[in-house]
Design brief:
By secondary structure, the chain is of the alpha/beta class. It has 7 helices and 6 strands. It has a 6-stranded mixed sheet, sandwiched between helices. The longest helix has 14 residues. The protein is globular and about 50 Å long.
């Protein structure tokens, strides 16, 4: 089965460089246009199911994609939610550097060992995503061949690491571009594996 991870359309906070995490920001008019563009890149794929994070920016993106693909069934799965940045949410990197210089330095240098003040660690995110991949909402549905998962930068980076059997220490080295579906193979027996090239040649932030 093909599993295509798509990052939600950008929000105002994305454009301002603010850490979002669990803060429930909408995509707005500019994001809506980007969501439509993302949907266009998926028109050639026979998508059977769209699974989405419960955060508004992902829900709104998933709604546009599902409608553009002919009313594809949508499901919400909380395990696709972004990592919680805790006290950092709403701040830019420069503001975080001024308030939490030591914690930011740890996040930059050793992401696998860092925990966001008042938030989560990569290990928390990893447990959640591994659970999603072990018991996905489509499991047991033999007719499902192509699934789009609308999520966030954190889970998508981690999916790439899991698929390529790489360490959490490499988390910050994985690029996530908006607007491109990152494509994987999934099976109940083998889990996640890379499936390159990506379906869409277009890039997303």
């Amino acid at each position: 089965m093909r599993l295509l991870f798509v990052r939600h359309a950008p929000t105002d906070w994305n454009r301002e460089g603010r850490y979002q995490g669990r803060t429930d920001t909408p995509i707005g008019e500019t994001g809506l246009r980007e969501a439509r563009r993302i949907a266009e890149t998926l028109r050639g794929v026979a998508v059977d199911l769209v699974v989405t994070s419960p955060l508004r920016r992902a829900l709104e993106t998933a709604e546009v994609i599902a409608a553009a693909l002919g009313g594809v069934r949508r499901l919400v799965d909380g395990r696709l939610v972004e990592i919680s940045f805790g006290d950092w949410e709403g701040f830019t990197q420069e503001e975080i550097r001024a308030r939490w210089p030591t914690a930011l330095r740890a996040w930059k240098r050793t992401p696998q060992a860092a925990r966001f003040p008042g938030g989560e660690s990569l290990h928390d995110l990893e447990r959640r995503l591994r659970d999603f991949l072990r018991t996905p909402p489509w499991r047991g549905e033999g007719c499902v061949r192509n699934v789009v998962a609308v999520s966030h930068a954190g889970p998508i980076r981690l999916a790439r690491l899991l698929a390529e059997r790489r360490s959490l220490a490499e988390f910050r080295e994985v690029p996530v571009v908006g607007g491109i579906a990152q494509e994987f193979r999934w099976s109940a027996s083998e889990g996640l594996a890379p499936n390159l090239p990506a379906t869409s040649p277009q890039d997303l932030p």
